[in-house]
Specification:
Elements (H helix, E strand, L loop, with lengths): L1 E3 L4 E2 L13 E7 L2 E5 L5 E4 L20 E3 L19 E2 L3 E5 L2 E9 L11 E9 L2 E5 L8 H7 L4 E5 L9 H10 L4 E5 L17 H4 L5 E4 L3 E4 L9 E3 L11 H19 L4 H14 L3 H13 L3 H15 L4 H17 L3 H14 L3 H12 L1
Parallel strand pairs: 1-14, 2-15, 5-6, 6-7, 11-12, 12-13, 14-16
Antiparallel strand pairs: 3-4, 3-15, 4-5, 8-9, 9-10, 10-11
Helix pairs in contact: 4-5, 5-6, 6-7, 6-8, 7-8, 8-9, 9-10
Length: about 375
């Protein structure tokens, strides 16, 4: 492997004629999130992640966007709410243009066994700007022939790769590279070193890289494409954003307490009271709707309906736009509790919000069933 120490590295790969190319800046934030800046200055953010779940590090506040692309509605790929309503968000397959970037969303399929709660939808995004065509696979499984035809020429592919084959297996990655004509590979969706060893359910990038040729590891989280055409450079590994911050000790402790509570209940449900103490500890130690939801569920199971309603109402006010998944879980539980309290109108209002904003098929069906009665 070689190291490149300049802030903007000139990266090599074979593309179309040099006259048609212009500089495209690619910035890696972390996990599966990149910012692509066109020659004209249009900034596209792809797959921003939720700051307070699973990964162990926060999303930088400084990231600017003219448009946000989402491959699928998992919290580690879908935090478009950071930019509010002023920035357009694209999720569905189709063609569009933003500034000097042509966007193509190709209908894919989330790698199994994950994503069943939203039908395993995954949009593969192709960005065409400055003569450079960049594909971001999200958590897509193996590409179909139809996917490959629709994508056409791909110069750079961002794909999930880690030592534990969490999304794609090594042979599947190799097949995708062949199908796309051996573009430059930018791996993503792996555990970052030096950040509390989280998340534990995906591996680091090192074991996958050990079997690859033409690897360049950057000391920077930014590179400029396309640069010189050097066929020996095949895999480009970015450093994460220097603005990443590890989770605070209270947030880390809250997740550890919640994990311990879940393990207790899985191993011995008779210890429910002990588990409840840990859930309450998590909810009290840091602000986050996931913890409030879990504590409200404990209260609901204990038939403390009024207290559970109060916890959920307060959590939804504090949550703002953050963590759409647990906001929807909270609304669904709150609707159930409203029904128990005789507040069917309030329950209907929560279910309508779920129909309008949720991607989870189970919550949508539950809301439809209530509203159709």
């Amino acid at each position: 492997m070689t190291n490149a120490r300049t802030l903007f590295l000139t990266v090599a790969f074979a593309v179309c004629s040099e006259a048609a190319l212009a500089d495209v800046d690619v910035e890696y934030i972390a996990h599966a999130c990149f910012v692509v800046a066109s020659p004209g200055g249009t900034r596209v953010v792809i797959d921003p992640y939720n700051s307070s779940r699973w990964l162990g590090y926060h999303f930088p506040d400084s990231v600017k966007a003219d448009v946000v692309l989402i491959t699928h509605p998992h919290y580690d790929h879908d935090a478009s709410y950071y930019w509010g309503d002023s920035v357009p968000v694209f999720r569905e397959p189709g063609r569009s243009r933003v500034g000097d970037i042509e966007l193509l969303g190709v209908e894919g399929h989330h790698a199994g066994p994950y994503g069943k709660e939203f039908g395993q939808r995954n949009t593969v995004w192709l960005l065409d700007t400055g003569g450079v065509r960049i594909a971001h696979l999200g958590d897509n499984g193996p590409l179909t022939e139809a996917n490959v035809r629709e994508l056409g020429r791909v110069d750079v592919v961002m794909l999930p790769a880690d030592g534990d084959d969490h999304i794609l297996k090594k042979d599947e990655i190799a097949a995708i590279r062949r199908q796309l004509g051996e573009p430059l590979v930018i791996p993503m969706h792996y555990r970052l070193d030096g950040l509390r060893g989280l998340p534990r359910s995906i591996g680091p990038i090192g074991p996958w890289l050990d079997g690859q040729a033409g690897v360049v590891r950057l000391d920077s989280n930014r590179a400029r494409l396309p640069g010189d055409k050097d066929p020996d450079r095949k895999v480009l590994v970015f450093s994460p954003s220097p603005e990443l911050e590890r989770w605070s000790d209270p947030l880390t402790a809250a997740w550890e307490a919640l994990g311990a509570a879940r393990k207790i209940m899985a191993d011995d449900p008779s210890r429910a009271a002990e588990a409840a103490v840990l859930v309450k500890q998590a909810a009290d130690s840091t602000d986050g709707i996931v913890f409030s939801f879990q504590w409200a569920r404990v209260l609901a199971q204990s038939r403390r309906t009024t207290e559970a309603i109060r916890v959920l109402e307060g959590a939804l006010v504090r949550a703002g736009r953050d963590d759409w998944e647990y906001r929807m879980h909270a609304r669904s539980l709150l609707a159930e509790l409203y029904v128990k309290a005789g507040r069917t109108g309030d329950a209907a209002a929560q279910y309508r919000l779920i129909l309008d904003r949720s991607y989870r098929l189970d919550l949508i069906e539950k809301a439809k069933a209530f509203l159709e009665e």
